[in-house]
Amino acid sequence: MSTLYIRYPATGTSSTTVTTIGTIDSVTASANGGVISGNSLIFQSASATVPGLVNTTNQTFAGPKTFNNDVSTGGNFRFNADNSGLTHAAGNSASLMAAGAEILRAGTTALTVVASPCPFIQNAGTAAATSYSFSGSAGSGMYSPGANQVGLASNGTAGLTMSSVQDVNMGSANSTNMQLLSDNFFFGRNISTEAPLICNQVNDGNLRLSGGASSSTHGRINLFGHSHATLADIIQFQTAGTTAGQISATQAWTIGAGTSTQHTLQTLLATNGAQTATMTNLPAAATSGNPNGWLQITVNGTTSYIPFWH
Predict the structure, then answer these.
(1) Helix and strand counts by DSSP (H, E) for the chain
(2) Of the residues 52, 123, 194, 276, which has the fewest C-beta atoms closer than 10 A?
(3) What three-state secondary structure class fits 284?
(4) How far apart are CA 121 and CA 134, in angstroms?
């Protein structure tokens, strides 16, 4: 075993030989990182005010530090003394803490907001540069077009906006089609009981406009598209679940197309159009022409007229 002797100072007539390492932090700390006391070199621990060594107790370092490689910890990364920072959560996950409470947890497959409520506050953005977008598609996502408003955009153009009073606008000047893929669409305050209710039911080319949730007790209009299997290109009118009339693909109007006797509009007009009234048991004077006058009688608010001759 070799012994290292340090002579201090290196120049001058008087010098001290360091022969031992003293107890760390046993003297007042120095701005030089250590103190020579007699023949002992005494190291000191680094702190927020002086340089020194890293020890095994809690320490606070002053000044920025740069690490060229990974930094590992068996505990947490905290900011100042408010118990906020990063901590290792269960499994392969990490949590963001604020004032000792877990706010956000990042796992291997999911990012979970733990605190409730904990809104993500973002700049309003625009349709061309949405606040919440997708990689490579800055103009496709969600943004806020104004105070208390929400918008959805694609390719830099707004496609759906909701106002502060929940008015919804869909489509844009660039839109050419709006396709609804679900079988049923309901509009109304209460889709189960309240009328009026508009229900669009797409079924084999059928568009249904209903006055209520129950088709058996409310009036409705059915518009059968060209692709319908049996009723292609027909407009149908129903009351209380029974078809009351329809317009065919050849523009023929039919009245009473349900369980009632069916009549086309042309037949009804021909049969029940202009009619000639015939009066029977008239007095002899009536045969010579029109009555000389009419006698008005009102009973219970209903007015009637009786012809008379003289």
Answers:
(1) 1, 25
(2) 276
(3) helix
(4) 17
Tokens describing residue 16: 């001290």
In terms of domains, do 265 and 224 share one? yes
Q: What secondary structure does DSSP assign to 250-283, as a single string?
A: T--EEE--SSSPPEEHHHHHHHHSS------S--
Phi, psi angle pair for 61, to nearest 5° = -105, 145
pTM value is: 0.46
Give 29-87 pLDDT, tens digit per residue: 998 888 988 888 999 999 999 999 999 888 888 888 888 988 887 778 877 667 788 88
State the DSSP code for 217: T
Domain containing residue 195: 184-272
Rounded CA separation 164/142 (Å): 16
CA-CA-CA-CA dihedral for 60, 61, 63, 65, to nearest 10: -120
Residue carrying the six token digits 């609804």: 180
Contact 193, 201 (CB under 8 A): no
Phi, psi of 307 (to 5 degrees): -70, 150
Contacts of 88 (CB under 8 A, 6+ apart): 76, 94, 95
DSSP-derived secondary structure letter, 285: G
Residues 157 and 193 in one domain: no
Q: 295 and 308 in contact (C-beta within 8 Å)?
A: yes
**Residue 90 backbone phi and psi in degrees, to 5:** -65, 140
